[in-house]
Amino acid sequence: MSQSLDRRRHPVRADLAAIDYEGRAEAARFVEGEVFQVIADRLPIRPEPRADRSIDTEALRGEWLTVYEQTPEGWAWGQLDTDGYVGWFSSGGLGPVTAATHRVRALRTYRYPVPDLKFPPLDLLSLGSKVTVTGETETRGLTYAILNDGSAVAARHLVPVETREEDWVLVAEELLGTPYLWGGRSSIGLDCSALVQLAAQTGGIDVPRDSDMQEAEAGEEIPHDDPSALKRGDLLFWKGHVGIIAGANKLVHANGFTMTVAHEPLDRAIERIAASEWGAITRARRLKAPA
């Protein structure tokens, strides 16, 4: 039974599995997981505990991971709470769990050791990262949010975690020019499905991580035989690729052609992609924000 489970979504291996799978999957042993919080700015998640393997995805600061194994070499294996993705990551990027109060709304923001932009920053947080704010202070006219570890970020770059964007496609468009990165899931670099996921999350819409998952599950399927009838925010799929309809004959997508997040005329994109290995459009889906 275990062999039929997608390793990206189920914490099940031949030698080890999450306790919830006991009786449903085969494994040498079943264990309870321990929940940690990501304390790295970005934490790469890989299919194997090897630094030379391409990343599958990334966890962002403040997200939670349930860990089922840690190795002496500094690797951990577990599942990301945000979208259920399973893989290997550095245990050095993990810390104790705290309840987030805010998330980063700016494309990216520096985190400082003290509330003063003249100090060398500790790291660079991406859109979607989560933080716990304990107070505010002002230095030379700029208000800083003080985080639970004593560090500081510009308060204007944060919003309460429950904040929703009315036009989440605009967030995708704010990412125009961001480098394409296979497996990337941040404003430093991302791939096609991460662009959809990060932008949609700002509108309160949760979608799976990878394009094949989004094509099968995100929102509701709609006809794709007439692409000109699609609306802003609709998702258009090809084999291994997804883009967002941004307007009449306009597609926004992270792609390996420009190697960026880019606008592209929809008709031109359809023609170009049809001539490549990705072929014809396979599906269209429409997302709906929760009530």
UniProtKB/TrEMBL annotation:
PROSITE patterns: NLPC_P60. Residues 206-226 are annotated as: Disordered. It comes from the Bacteria. InterPro entries: NLP_P60_dom, Papain-like_cys_pep_sf, Peptidase_C40, SH3_16. SUPFAM superfamilies: Cysteine proteinases (SSF54001). Residues 162-288 form the NlpC/P60 domain. Keywords: Hydrolase, Protease, Thiol protease. The keyword Signal does not apply. It holds the Pfam family NLPC_P60. Belongs to the peptidase C40 family. This is NlpC/P60 family protein.
